[in-house]
Design brief:
Blueprint (H helix, E strand, L loop, with lengths): L6 H16 L3 E8 L7 E5 L4 E9 L7 E4 L5 E7 L4 E10 L2 H9 L1
Antiparallel strand pairs: 1-2, 1-4, 2-3, 3-6, 4-5, 5-6
Length: 107
């Protein structure tokens, strides 16, 4: 039960929760899992890019998962699911089309 006698604590808690996921640059949804290898995923970002993410360690992504991270880049990045679990992925590329992202993971 929340204690409203301490508004500073309530404000601080709300502030932390609000900014915990907004600190990530991008948001997306996993649209394909286990692409040409266990754990590899294609993520569609909210602004329409398709991300080719190769699983390295940690959580496996499933179709429909809402995820956060720095997607429009290359190299190793942490991807976090909306439940707070995360994993290390190698961003192969970001593409304007779904098929191009699939090809990137299967080369």
């Amino acid at each position: 039960m929340l204690n409203f006698k301490h508004p500073r604590i309530l404000f601080t808690t709300g502030f932390i929760l609000f900014f915990s996921f907004s600190a990530y640059a991008d948001k997306g949804q996993v649209v394909e899992q286990d692409v040409c290898g266990s754990g590899n995923a294609v993520i569609e970002t909210t602004d329409g890019w398709y991300i080719a993410a190769e699983h390295q360690s940690g959580v496996y992504l499933n179709e429909g998962d809402i995820v956060f991270g720095n997607f429009k880049t290359y190299g190793f990045e942490v991807i976090t699911r909306d439940d707070g679990s995360d994993g290390q992925f190698y961003i192969e590329d970001y593409e304007v089309g779904f098929e191009a992202a699939l090809e990137e993971l299967c080369e």
